[in-house]
C-alpha cells in the first residue's frame, strides 16, 4: 500500500516554479529544490521525476497561470488601450512576493535552445501572447482606440517584442520610473 504524501504537491510545485524563476534552471541545485519545496529528495524524485521533468512541469504551471491571468486582465479592461496598459504594467511589476522578469522569457534564453520540450512550451506561450495582443489590437481598431493604419498582425508582433524586451528589462532595471516611461513609450506608439 502506497503511503500518503507528506506534502502538498501543488505547493511544492509552486515553490519549485518560483525557485527556477529566481535562479534559472542551471543555477538551481537539487539541494536548493528539496529545501525550497520542503520535501525529501526521494519524495521529489518519486513525485516529480528528475530535475528536468520538474522544471518542465514548473514551466508549464507558470505559463498556464500567466496566460490565464493575462486573459482575465484583458477581459476586465474597459478598452484596448487599458488592456495593453495592464498587460505591459504587469510585465514590469516588481514586488517582494515574486521574482522580477518572466520565467518563460528566462527559459527561452537559458534552456530552450537545447531542450525541445522547453522550446515547445516557450513557443506555445509566445504564440498565445501574440494571439492575445492581436485580439486587443483588432478590438482597439474596431472601437477607434488604435489607428487602423496599422496592420493588426504586424502591430501585435511589434507589441509582443516590446513586451519581451520589457520583461527582460524588469529583471535588471530597478528604477520603477524608468520602467513606467518604457511602458508609456510603447503605448504612445499605438495611438
TrEMBL record:
SUPFAM superfamilies assigned to the protein according to its UniProt record, in alphabetical order: Homeodomain-like, Tetracyclin repressor-like, C-terminal domain
Domain HTH tetR-type, chain residue ranges per copy: 6-66
DNA-binding residues (ranges): 29-48
Domain of life from the UniProt record: Bacteria
Keywords, alphabetical: DNA-binding, Transcription, Transcription regulation
Full protein name: TetR/AcrR family transcriptional regulator
Amino acid at each position: 500500500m502506497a503511503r500518503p504524501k507528506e506534502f502538498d504537491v501543488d505547493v511544492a510545485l509552486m515553490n519549485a516554479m518560483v525557485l527556477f524563476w529566481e535562479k534559472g534552471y542551471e543555477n538551481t541545485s537539487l539541494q536548493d529544490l528539496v529545501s525550497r519545496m520542503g520535501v525529501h529528495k526521494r519524495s521529489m524524485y518519486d513525485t516529480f521525476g528528475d530535475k528536468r521533468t520538474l522544471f518542465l512541469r514548473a514551466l508549464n504551471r507558470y505559463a498556464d497561470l500567466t496566460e490565464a491571468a493575462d486573459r482575465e486582465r484583458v477581459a476586465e479592461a474597459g478598452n484596448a488601450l487599458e488592456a495593453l496598459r495592464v498587460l505591459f504594467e504587469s510585465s514590469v511589476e516588481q514586488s517582494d512576493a515574486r521574482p522580477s522578469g518572466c520565467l518563460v522569457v528566462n527559459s527561452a534564453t537559458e534552456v530552450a535552445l537545447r531542450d525541445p520540450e522547453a522550446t515547445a512550451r516557450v513557443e506555445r506561450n509566445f504564440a498565445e501572447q501574440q494571439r492575445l495582443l492581436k485580439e486587443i489590437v483588432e478590438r482597439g481598431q474596431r472601437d477607434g482606440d488604435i489607428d487602423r493604419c496599422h496592420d493588426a498582425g504586424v502591430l501585435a508582433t511589434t507589441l509582443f517584442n516590446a513586451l519581451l524586451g520589457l520583461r527582460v528589462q524588469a529583471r535588471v532595471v530597478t528604477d520603477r520610473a524608468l520602467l513606467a516611461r518604457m511602458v508609456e513609450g510603447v503605448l504612445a506608439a499605438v495611438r
